[in-house]
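REQUEST FORM: STRUCTURE PREDICTION
Request ID: SP-0412
Submitted by: Lab K.M.
Chain count: 1
Length (residues): 272
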Amino acid sequence: MSDVQHTGHRPGPRVPRAGLFLLVAVLGVVVLLAVLLVPRLLSERAYGQLSVPEGRRAAQIYADADRTLHVPAGTTAEAARTAHLDLPAEAKGNPEGYLFPATYPLRKDTTPASLLTYMVKTGRQRLAADGITDYRTVVIASIVQAEADRPADMGKVARVIDNRLARNMPLQMDSTINYALGRSTLRTTHADTRTDSPYNTYRFEGLPPTPIDNPGAQALKAAAAPTPGNWLYFVTVKPGDTRFTADYQEQLRNVREFNGAQENRAAAGPTG
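STATUS: Completed
RESULT:
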């Protein structure tokens, strides 16, 4: 029997000196990374984000970017003219239609030019992923985005556009006149239809020279693959009720119903 008295305590294994130094070094690196990265992450989060809704016009996006980036009004519009964005030749430097609707995170070093570059890059990538390379398709999609009351109607609206173009009929789209006049309204007057602008599709046949907004993925897909049909006309009589027809007399009846609904709404006044 040993003379050594057992106390019940068993000392743990000793950490070799080299291992101890390695552990301290690793912990030091972790602390250093936290010191460096956490303020950066918090800083980036503090700079916010820019959300671009579907159908937003370039001019509206420029104004939103100016406010979000805290730069003078007109700065982003000027950047769009000078940033040499990666656009198709047909766009002639105008990014309308290629500022893809999405939410874009902002960083401390984000500038109007870098933001526009990222947006156009995102748009080109999404178009390529869907097999859309034709500028014409983007122009049509922008009209679809502006005219369709709901996504379910987009394929039919695209088909009306294609059918009218195939018959050399003027598109007569109110949305293109709204773009020319820098407004958004459901009411188009006879005076409006005489507007001298290439975006006036009542006066000039064919498509407008550029997109009229920045369409989302559903409008782009509808423009690339319209719903089969012979429709030549449509009107949204009331929300959720868009009437499509190939018969002009039926279209006139639908338009009269639309006008009546508008007059009744105006007579009722604000609803609160």
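NOTES: The radius of gyration is 29 Å.
Reviewed by: T.R.
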